[in-house]
Amino acid sequence: MSIPTPHINAKAGDFAETVLMPGDPKRSQMIAEKFLEDAVLVNDVRGVQGYTGTYKGKRVSVMASGMGQPAIGIYSYELFAFYDVKNIIRIGSCGSIDEELHLKDIVIAQAACTNGFYASQYNLPGTYAPIASYELLEKAVNEARAKGYKFKVGNILSSDTFYDDAESAMDWCKMGVLGIEMESAALYCNAARLGKNALCICTVSDSFNHPDEIMTAEERQNSLTQMIELALEIA
Length: 235
What we know:
Elements: E1 18-21, H1 25-35, E2 37-43, E3 50-55, E4 58-63, H2 69-82, E5 87-96, E6 106-114, H3 134-147, E7 151-158, H4 169-173, E8 179-181, H5 184-194, E9 197-207, H6 217-234
Parallel strand pairs: 1-4, 1-5, 5-9, 6-7, 7-8
Antiparallel strand pairs: 2-3, 3-4, 5-8, 6-9
Helix pairs in contact: 2-5, 3-6
């Protein structure tokens, strides 16, 4: 396949080697406008905005992924395979199922379980375990410690169902899973298959264990700022 791809209309060289990937296109725009210098819109197919600018003199891109493994599977694959992107850092939210995690805490996803079948395409004779790239993981942990952020490193669940009729979320907690989101397993699979690097950093937006905790708009903005700055520093 040549570029532009079916889902990205950027030209060769438009993306930096590291791309931050929130789910929401509006958050992609906000990051570009608030955190990047000289940000330029390089993709807007289907309203999935992608920008490239600089952060502290380093060239960085940010582009939305949309929701779910199929969506991030498409965008991350095209960025890795056709635009020579080396690192993708997903920055999103997750629902906590870990008793120790509260709203605004950060989860750095060492690995991603899933109830989906994205890895079945590889025809492996067993169950593949999608994991983060250690290089990015180590940098994120060191930077989070240096900044004094409250965070936890561990396993998450990439669920294909937001409204789950089985209501089985807490079953994953028995296996040490920290939280639930919807994208990271596919991202980690693509990175492994294409020899690239990937990491997911999430902010806890709600909790199964602490349902009375409510994040205000101001708290959500500040919490996401910590996560975004963490990702930008390791970029």
